[in-house]
Amino acid sequence: MLLVCLLGLSACSTKFSYHFLDWAIGWEQEDYVTLDKPQQKAFDALIEKFVLWHQSKELSHYVVQLTEVESLIKTNTLTPVLWAEHVEIAKRHWFRLFEFALPELLPIIMSLSDEQVKQILAKLREDEQELVKEFAGKTPTQLQKEADENLQEQFDDWLGSVSAEQKELIHQYNQQRLSTLDMWLEYRHEWLRQFEVALGQRADKALLTERLTLLMTQPDELKSEQHKVFLRKNTEAFGTLLLEMNTSLTDKQSKHFYKKLGGLIQDLTELNQEAIEKEASAKKA
After folding, report:
1. Angstrom distance (rounded) from CA 73 to CA 242
2. Hey, is 261 helix, strand or coil?
3. What pLDDT digit, counting tens, does each position of 109-162 carry?
4. CB of 36 within 8 A of CB of 255?
5. Using CB atoms within 10 A as the burial measure, which of 26, 90, 108, 235 is most buried?
6. What CA dihedral angle connects 234, 239, 241 and 246, to 10 degrees?
7. pTM, full prediction
8. Residues 6 or more apart from 245 whose CB is under 8 A from it?
9. Residue 205: partners with Cβ closer than 8 Å, 6 or more residues away
């Protein structure tokens, strides 16, 4: 689940999807801004370097973490607090992506024209409006039902299908979960506001670096203390749900889960080894 959140890849197609990661990033970029030829050349070079670095250096971190989580589940030693710690580790995986890319991304951002900045901000505002619209006017009961359905779908993917008992566990978790929707939407709005300020001051490299480092690698700094407390409690509550779900697994569900997780770990290990060998061959050449 951690890796799926990080990469948006499914275990059955991780290796296939990963080899199209550069294309996927490029496609996403084009949806937000049209770069001129020098900018596009620099961006493409960055993505090529980024993907190789990620495959050769970062995937090993994912393998280590997923293997540890697998062991904790198998030995029944996973706790809500340990789960919350692993969520924090997963966040650091994500933040390292920006730390790696930022030095070479800065010159591209600094070269953006006013028109390009308007294009980026317009798309981000559109995304924000669509997000608000998605939740606007919905009753707590409707939101609860959608949360149940979304979580059931995720567990279906990892377990094959969920039982009536497991659906009830999911429902109880969502009932008890502390509401952070308004705080989350407020945080996203503040993030966008500060990102707009950063782009407006992009001529100042030191200031731009400081602002983007905050936004991309320390986003929790923009959240209220209550928001952070609620998120921590909800994360631990989800850890409790995982323990309850694990206890309720049938043999068939257990086999499905470990086969899927094992396949994911194997795919990531092979992808990582593939990149290491590629780097070694390049050095010999």
Report:
1. 9
2. helix
3. 999 999 999 999 999 999 999 989 998 888 989 999 999 999 999 999 999 999
4. no
5. 90
6. 170
7. 0.88
8. 155, 159, 166, 169
9. 106, 110
Cα–Cα distance measured from residue 271 to residue 57, given in angstroms and rounded to the nearest whole number: 11
| Residue of 79, 80, 66 whose CA lies nearest to 5 | 66
Residues 6+ apart with CB under 8 A from 157: 10
Whether the Cβ atoms of residue 151 and residue 170 lie closer than 8 Å to each other = yes
| CB of 29 closer than 8 Å to CB of 59 | no
Round to whole Å and give the CA distance between 80 and 255: 23
Hunting for tokens 């921590």 — which residue is that?
232
Residue-range domain boundaries for the chain: 38-283
Q: Tokens in use for 140?
A: 């707590």
Q: Which amino acid is at 174?
A: N
In whole angstroms, give the CA distance from residue 150 to residue 177.
15
The number of beta carbons lying within 10 Å of the beta carbon of residue 265 is 21
- DSSP conformation class of 179: P
179 and 26 in contact (C-beta within 8 Å)?
Answer: no
Tokens of 114: 């006013």
